[in-house]
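Re: beginner question about structure tokens

> Can someone show what the tokenized structure looks like for a real chain? I only ever see the sequence side.

Sure, here's an example I had lying around. Input first:
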Amino acid sequence: MQAMELGKFGIENLQMVDLEKPQPGPREVLIRVRAASLNYRDRMLIEGSYMPNLKFPLIPISDGAGEVLEVGAEVTRWKVGDRVTTHYSTTWLAGEMTEAHQTAKLGGPLPGMLREYAALPESALVATPNHLSDAEAATLPIAALTAWNAFQEANLQAGQTVLLQGTGGVSLFALQFAKVLGAKIIITSSSDAKLQRALELGAHHGINYRNTPNWGETARELNGGRGVDVVVEVGGAHTLAQSLTAIRQSGSIAVIGFLGGLGSSPDVVRTLVQKRARMLGISVGHRESFEAMNRVIELHKIRPVIDRSFTLPQTIDAFRHFGSSDLFGKVAISI
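And the corresponding structure tokens:
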């Protein structure tokens, strides 16, 4: 089978290889992988900043989707022909995440989805929503589930206000979930064109943060001066100070990324205490939550926003596009 393999750190070190087609064990299924999608985690891992002790070679990329070709003798969850999507944290089925779950993640340390075939535990898959293509389904495991759990942990209620940062995959999934949950949505971007697209998707207000450096205060004003109820924080140190300005008393900041770096933001502790705000660390979610999210996606016919799709041999080009300022939504790879 064809696969994309990483021999050492650096996107330029991705290369196509021919590997033996895997055979499923008794509790495994063999899937024909039809699509994968890129996440910030994947780029960090390949560049060497996420798992510096990674063992090579590795097939990267955590998220994929396809159909079941074979089932092991003891498999009960799936049958041949089922359309399935991978669950990134393969052993985290429900309840709290443990240290053991950290070592069972697709795309590092376990082999990822940039390959034609994969033999995976039957428990490491969920059913693909019927209305989605494989490319659309492949965008769900990390980006969508992270956005979904940000709102679950923050207990977002209808009529509350959320502040979203940027127009990457997680933020656009958060926009779509906030819309069906009945929330008021404020979103930021450096591009007026992207803000207009976000408004067309259902956002109520857009803030260009290049033109409005104190966008946290603007977000407060857009919600009557009281502040927003929930912030989905993707920027890290670069944006946290503005998120703290925007959040209301006793509001929740769901920290799901650090695109702007990991350095400390001034007066974090003081502001958190003064506002009695909660800061929540969000790291995807368990399989039970994934299945609940998919029921909502299917009920409301939510469709992921795919900016562009590439082929397996174009993986390096896909990563370069993923890092560009033109990105709006997810990047998919057809396999």
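Each token stands for a local structural state, so reading them left to right follows the chain. The mean pLDDT is 93.
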